[in-house]
Amino acid sequence: MSTKTRRQYTEEFKTEAVRLVRDSARPVAQVARDLGIADHLLYRWRAEQQQAENQGHTRQSMRAEQEELARLRRENAILKQERDFLKRAAAFLREGVAMRYRVIQEYDRRYPIRLMCRALAVSAAGYYAWRSRPESARSIQTRTLLSAIRVIHQQSRETYGSPRIWDVLVKQGHRVGEHRVARLMRHGGIRAKTMTKWRATTQSPHPFPVAANTLNRAFTVAAPNQVWAGDLTYVWTLEGWLYLAVLLDLYSRRVVGWAMGQRVTVDLAEQALTMALATRTPTAGLLHHSDRGSQYAATSYQRLLDEYGLIPSMSRKGNCWDNACVESFFGTLKRELIHHRQYRTREEATQDIFEYIEVFYNRQRRHSTLGYHSPAEYEARAAVA
After folding, report:
1. Does 103 share its domain with 146?
2. What pTM value is reported for the model?
3. Which of 65, 134, 274, 301 is the most exposed place for a label (fewest CB within 10 A)?
4. Distance in angstroms (rounded) separating the CA atoms of residues 302 and 310
């Protein structure tokens, strides 16, 4: 009994058989008979090749799309880098070539050299030639100063302008003029935070008696614990308003008492006063100035002042300038801190304001009225003198 051997077909044979069908006008059955194979085999081979070709086209199309997407992403990344760099360096387009080279050198670890050269309209060859030359003493000093300015600006929480930064530089031993510091800051895109001021008022109608304006804008004080000035303001959080009461010693502008809470009450003002009394232990006769708000005119608050021998003074009706020092502090607080935050909770705002007052404002921030000393430094110098 003989066994019929199943015929095997190579891939090349299958390919050519299908090509014969495509290239000729003959039907599949005719080509199959001509090749001595069954019709269904040729139909199957043609379907398999069509599927393979479709998959190949799909893969090729996908590969082309992926390559195009990658190209667009690269171009977008380059455009983003150019945009970011130009935000920092646009002012230098009006400067000389040497200054533009210095800008490129400053940012050479952040952006590609050729990208920066293109943005600042200088040649890469020119930049490399400039960089290979020995650096002049003036250039070294400029680079050192700019680095020091950036450090001071960051340490001040980006709140210092050129006068305060110049003062710090001089005290650090740098020999430089204020105008040069201002110019370097302008060229380096270094600016102090600014924001429009806004204020709260506690001067709602109430039945309590008000004190005379004894202070009468005599904001210059000879010694600590002679005049305190207080006021309240508010800070927005996603939980609602947080209210802040403060007392400043007008001698040093130091915040000697503060309190924060959910409601603007007499108790909030009393908490700030109690803190000031505990930390400063003033003698009788200290002048306590505030506005005419019910929190300060209330019987319980006035009783606390009387208990410690403090003399009340109140601003004239609707005149915020009579309490300008505290208004100025609130403006500084909001300009340098609050307007640059979005607090989720009152607790988060409380922690941030506490750190600003006790760590930064009282002990680090240089005050122009105090000869660019911090309130704590100013009081310490007075104690030694």
Report:
1. no
2. 0.55
3. 134
4. 9
